[in-house]
Structure to design on (113 residues):
């Protein structure tokens, strides 16, 4: 397990949430020094602390420990299914149509990149 990469992902999510190390450490119930060492990969991260940090950042633990976007795909499919289940038939069709249109636009964008 690459603790440096985990620390860098934590830092990325922390900054995206406009949180200081101090605030994230407070939310995770750890010291600021420990938080700093986690982000720099200078200490191993316990599962309980990892769960607290993920919760504070409102991400999944998998988002912190894995750099493979493919591992998230089954979870995303479940999320889409849950979203569609909460919709009326008309709303679900509209969302599917929007997703298809966005996929076409994304494919075109990726071709140009």
């Amino acid at each position: 397990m690459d603790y440096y990469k985990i620390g860098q992902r934590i830092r990325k999510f922390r900054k995206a949430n406009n949180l200081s190390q101090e605030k994230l450490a407070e939310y995770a119930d750890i010291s600021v020094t420990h938080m700093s060492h986690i982000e720099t990969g200078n200490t191993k991260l316990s599962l309980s602390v990892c769960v607290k940090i993920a919760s504070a950042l409102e991400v999944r633990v998998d988002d912190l420990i894995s750099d493979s976007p493919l591992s998230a795909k089954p979870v995303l499919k479940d999320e889409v299914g849950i979203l569609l289940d909460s919709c009326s038939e008309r709303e679900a069709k509209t969302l599917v149509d929007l997703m298809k249109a966005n996929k076409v636009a994304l494919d075109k964008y990726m071709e140009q990149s």
About this structure: The chain has a mean pLDDT of 91. Residues 24 and 100 are 38 Å apart (CA to CA). The radius of gyration is 18 Å.
